[in-house]
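haha ok so turns out i had the wrong file open the whole time. this is the CORRECT one, sorry everyone. sequence first:
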Amino acid sequence: MTKSFNMRWAIIDDYPSIGEVMYDAVRSGKSKYSDAQRSAWMPEARSGDEWNIRLAQQDIILCEDNTQIVGFMSLAPKAYIDFAFIRPSAQGRGLFRKLYNEIENLAQKHNEPRLWVHASLMAQPAFSAVGFTIIKEETVAMRGQDFNRFEMEKNLAI
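then structure:
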């Protein structure tokens, strides 16, 4: 039995729920980061004016299960994938690829030559599976914790 999910573009009313999805994915999902790192990365669900301003500058595709947002991915200026998160309860159902396909289609409509992302240790395999390559490995510091991640890109030009 295959479950059907609704895909749609986000509106401002979705921003608090998007913050909750991100929090759930970081804090409750499988992770290659320690609990201390996850707490530093996401001390609470993102919300408020700064969050709303950041999201308003991006195109965000959502995946819903009934009326609950279970995943999202965003395309920021300069063809940067800023966010890609799926609730732990919805992982393993092909949602990443569905969200990504919408983002790639949008980038192609805007004639972007490439997409790029800073992928976490958990997201790197999913981005590799849709054709991204690692440009470099990085370590970034946040709230007293160091995080390994990957700068990745995918060329879209044919």
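The helical segments are 15-28, 35-41, 49-56, 95-109, 124-129.
again sry for the mixup
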